[in-house]
Amino acid sequence: MSLVSAVWLWFLLVLAVGFVALVVACLGYLYGLLAPHLSDESAIRGANICAIGFGFVAGYPAWYLVRAGLDMHTVVSGGIAAIVVGLTAGGVGTAAITGVLRSDPSLFPTSPSNVRRRYARYLTSIFALAFGIIVVALPIVQREPLAGLGMLPVLTSLCWVATPFIFPLTVPVRRPTATERDRLEAVLDASDLSTYGVRIIDSDIHGLDGWLLDSPLSRYLFVSRVTVDACDDATLRALFVARREQKRSYTHLLKAALLTISGECILLGLLIDDFSFLLVAILAIALALLEFSALRRLRYYTDDRAAETVGATELADAFERVAVEGGITVTETPSRNWFSSTPSLSARIERLRAEAETTAGGADATGGGTASAE
């Protein structure tokens, strides 16, 4: 390709991305008008879907355009394409969030500029990493299509192992100060939770406790600065015990494994001509819905296990505290949560409150019966 053609191609690509970003910002604005009528959790989840979905819609064509326009070795051109896809998806997805914030600036409990920076960093990193993996896997799949079926579980396992090291690329993370470290170590000991290290998520957006990212090599606790500053030791212990029970049940690994099954169905439809892609896609969606239902039940089970240690009321109070600090209202419970692997926080809190009342009622009945006998 000549230099003039290459410059013209890149100019058209930038122009197209700019136009798509403008359209997506308008669509985000329309969603922002709807968001106040939803619960906070549903509104934020919808904003995430808009950002990721529009980012993918823009990044996927950019992948093919860049690879087709680069007369280079496959891996080299693929690497450049992955970077371009990351920048494209990050820009378009951030445009969607910008539109949402224009019509509903109160959706996130921090300034719009911080929200935009956070989404731009997250989306760019995630899409660049995802398409970078495709660059490595694509030559193998092209030589042996069925190899893709075996590669997906391998890639899922590798991502699980590498998550503690990839996660800091997507969010601002720092080491805890000496005071924070001493306090968190004491709470971790009280929670019977051992970690390889603790990192503070230095962002106002992350107001809900944190992440316990596990792998055979290391286990890191990522906890938000908002949570550390706003919560007392008892609240932190309740949150850490809940994370401990989730890890003991291999919640994240099981989630990845179940979603891999749906991904394998999609690959079957793409790689094997004898399978109808439409039927396979319907099967994959049906499996995903069943998997989400199972994972939501698993989260309720881990909440029950944590409540056995810290108490149902204490755990519900801890969830409410971090929700308030994160600017999330938990008074509404969505009637349907089919497309999420985690129950709404309000539903989890209501369930814990009901469990505490049942336990207290049973204790009162037992006490009354004893007194009558005496």
From TrEMBL:
<keyword id="KW-0472">Membrane</keyword>
<feature type="transmembrane region" description="Helical">
    <location>
        <begin position="78"/>
        <end position="101"/>
    </location>
</feature>
<feature type="transmembrane region" description="Helical">
    <location>
        <begin position="6"/>
        <end position="34"/>
    </location>
</feature>
<feature type="transmembrane region" description="Helical">
    <location>
        <begin position="277"/>
        <end position="295"/>
    </location>
</feature>
<keyword id="KW-1133">Transmembrane helix</keyword>
<keyword id="KW-0812">Transmembrane</keyword>
<feature type="transmembrane region" description="Helical">
    <location>
        <begin position="46"/>
        <end position="66"/>
    </location>
</feature>
<feature type="transmembrane region" description="Helical">
    <location>
        <begin position="122"/>
        <end position="141"/>
    </location>
</feature>
<feature type="transmembrane region" description="Helical">
    <location>
        <begin position="253"/>
        <end position="271"/>
    </location>
</feature>
<feature type="transmembrane region" description="Helical">
    <location>
        <begin position="147"/>
        <end position="171"/>
    </location>
</feature>
<protein>
    <submittedName>
        <fullName>Peptidase</fullName>
    </submittedName>
</protein>
